[in-house]
Every structure is written in structure tokens, then in C-alpha cells.
Design brief:
Blueprint (H helix, E strand, L loop, with lengths): L8 H14 L12 E8 L5 H8 L12 E8 L8 E8 L21 E8 L6 H29 L29 E6 L1 H4 L4 H17 L3 E4 L5 H16 L16 E2 L6 H4 L17 H12 L6 H4 L14 H31 L1
Parallel strand pairs: 1-3, 1-4, 4-5, 5-6
Antiparallel strand pairs: 2-3, 6-7
Helix pairs in contact: 5-8
């Protein structure tokens, strides 16, 4: 009788793929399929879906993301060669559904995982809070998965194959002063077409702050707009680098009067300088560390919204007009009426019983 495994189908399938890769992919003439996972998260209504569709060259209208959605992309490397696959997860709802990071961030795909954080530049008063909460949620899950993986390997007397500590080249700028994100991270500032109309000083605050954050996490940073073919082309090259391992180019733009374009390792604390503060006395701020100092300066210029709409209970999708289905909604309304009638009848019967006693 065959042994029953407790592994999920996904884990079994992943194990089969890794087994074939280890054997050299003989069935495909020695060529193996490259599979990577990209997890997108960010500001609510920040353009995540639109950017993803453009990066995948899909000409279709974008719809608001409901909770967590999955799709995939493929890329052919040559004739009669298996296509590389990118598993793409997109988290909706801004920070309200951050607990769902546990679904795309698992032990199965953590070695080939990368994260894209999309921040709405047109809403700077919600930017830091969104960024901080989502990155913390993702990092916590990455560390949790890493710890579980290491414990499992230790129990099997195997050498650890993955650690949450990301290893950078020895010549990486400010290597001893930064805290690298556990997996490759790309920060995208969306809606640059609106942001470029902001006051010059406010643009500088946002630009310098995001440069600091990106460098602190050893992440890449790019500003984009779906209304600009040029910016979307550059964004696609960064996306394809994470999804398919393609070259992302060597162009760098550090000028706050232009869209930022900074690959990981192309910036430094020396080039970024101190926080841009025209009306803030930095010495009066009681900060625990450099990151906390940048946060306090940024929040003095852009007081952060509490995102109360995102903190509240998530709106019932069944009542959301964008997901309307006339026939289903009509049946649902009928069942709701029947339920209410049943409740009223039940209440009357209970009152009758109480009177008899």
C-alpha cells in the first residue's frame, strides 16, 4: 500500500520540479524551466494591477484587486526551449489585508522570491505608514518561514539551505550600516505624472526619504506613471529582471527634478545626504536610529493619515457594485428577505412561548 504523505499538492509538485532540475532536465534535452515568484503589494488604488498588466504586455482593463490574486507570466528563451515561468501574486486593500502575506511567502518558493512595493506618490501623507506596515509584515513572514525551514533541516541533520540574512557583495555601499531586506526588493513610486506637479521642496523630501529607505533595505527604486511609455518601459525592465532574470540596464537617475531610477547598490548615504528639512530642527527630534530620524522628519512635513478606512472591517464584496452580477444579486436579495422573515417569525414564536409559561 503506498505511503500517504501529509505534504500539500503544491509541496509535492515543487519537490517533483526540484527533483527533475537536479537530474539535469533530461526530458527537455538538458534545458530546465526557470520558475520565480514575484509578490506585489502597496498603496490602495496605487496602480498595482495597471503596472503589472503593462509589464506583462496584457492589453486588458484593470480591475480593483479583491484580497489576494494570482496570475503568471511566461517568457521564451529560444526555439523548442521550455518557457520560463513567473508566479505573480498581488495583494489588494493596501495595508488592511497584510496578514495574507503568509500565502505567497512560503518555504516552497522563498529561494526564488522577490517583492515589489508600489507606493502612491500622489498621496505622500499615507506613504510612510503604508510602506512601514507592509514591509514589516512581509519581513516578519520571511523570517518566520526561514526559521521553520532551518529547524526542519536541522532535525533532518541537513545543512541550512536558506537564511533570512541576505548576503551582499563585500564592496556594496555602506554594507555595515544598512539592513538588507531578506529577498530582492523593488520600490516603485507610482503616479509620477501627478507627483511632478508638487512643490519643489516637498518633492525633495519624498525623493530623499525614499532613496534612504531603498538604500537602507538594499532595494532598487524607480518612479513611474502608466501615462508615460518611457517610464513604463524602464519599469518593465526592472520587473523582468525580478521575474525572469533579464538585464535591467545600467541607467541611474538621482535628480529629484526627474523620475528616480536607482538600481540596488547604485546609491549611498553620502550621496543621499541628511534629511531634507527646511522647517524642521533635526536636533530637537528624539530618534532611536537613522531610520527613525528620517521617519520623524518626513512625518513633520507630511503628517501621516491613520488609514482608518483600511483599518476598519473590509467592505463586503457581495455589496460592492463593481462586482455586481444581476441574476446572482437578485437571488441573494430574495434569500436575504426570506432570512429576515424567518427571524421575525422565530421571534414571534418565542414570545408566544414566553407568554404561555
Amino acid at each position: 500500500m503506498p505511503k500517504i504523505s501529509s505534504d500539500t499538492l503544491w509541496e509535492q509538485a515543487a519537490a517533483e520540479v526540484h527533483s527533475r532540475e537536479a537530474e539535469g532536465g533530461e526530458e527537455d534535452g538538458g534545458e530546465t524551466v526557470s520558475e520565480r515568484t514575484v509578490f506585489l503589494m502597496g498603496s490602495k488604488s496605487g496602480g498595482k494591477t495597471s503596472i503589472l498588466l503593462r509589464c506583462l504586455d496584457r492589453d486588458e482593463p484593470s480591475k480593483p484587486t479583491l484580497a489576494l490574486e494570482y496570475t503568471f507570466g511566461r517568457r521564451a528563451r529560444g526555439h523548442n526551449i521550455p518557457k520560463d515561468i513567473a508566479h505573480l501574486w498581488e495583494l489588494g486593500g493596501g495595508t488592511s489585508l497584510s496578514d495574507l502575506v503568509q500565502i505567497p511567502i512560503t518555504a516552497v518558493g522563498i529561494r526564488s522570491l522577490s517583492v515589489i512595493l508600489i507606493l502612491d506618490l500622489s498621496k505622500p501623507n499615507a506613504l510612510w505608514g503604508t510602506m512601514e506596515r507592509l514591509l514589516q509584515a512581509a519581513q516578519h513572514q520571511l523570517e518566520k518561514v526561514s526559521s521553520q525551514t532551518q529547524q526542519a533541516q536541522k532535525a533532518k541533520h541537513q545543512a541550512p539551505a536558506y537564511s533570512a540574512a541576505r548576503v551582499l557583495p563585500k564592496d556594496y555601499p555602506d554594507r555595515e550600516l544598512i539592513s538588507p531586506f531578506p529577498v530582492p526588493l523593488l520600490i516603485i513610486g507610482s503616479k509620477y505624472d501627478i507627483f511632478q506637479e508638487f512643490d519643489s521642496d516637498k518633492r525633495k523630501v519624498v525623493c530623499k526619504t525614499l532613496r534612504f529607505v531603498a538604500h537602507y533595505y538594499a532595494a532598487s527604486l524607480i518612479f513611474t506613471s502608466i501615462k508615460s511609455e518611457n517610464l513604463m518601459s524602464k519599469t518593465k525592465s526592472f520587473f523582468s529582471h525580478l521575474a525572469f532574470g533579464l538585464d535591467r540596464g545600467k541607467t541611474v537617475s538621482l535628480d529629484s527634478t526627474k523620475p528616480l531610477l536607482i538600481a540596488a547598490g547604485s546609491d549611498s548615504f553620502n550621496q543621499i545626504g541628511s534629511p531634507h528639512s527646511t522647517d524642521v530642527d533635526i536636533t530637537s527630534l528624539h530618534a532611536k536610529n537613522p531610520k527613525d530620524l528620517w521617519k520623524k522628519v518626513y512625518e513633520r512635513v507630511f503628517p501621516q493619515e491613520q488609514n482608518t478606512s483600511e483599518q476598519r472591517e473590509v467592505k463586503d464584496p457581495a455589496k460592492d457594485p463593481q462586482y455586481s452580477e444581476p441574476q446572482i444579486d437578485a437571488m441573494r436579495a430574495q434569500k436575504d428577505q426570506e432570512l429576515e422573515q424567518y427571524k421575525r417569525n422565530a421571534a414571534k414564536s418565542w414570545k408566544g412561548l414566553e407568554l404561555e409559561t
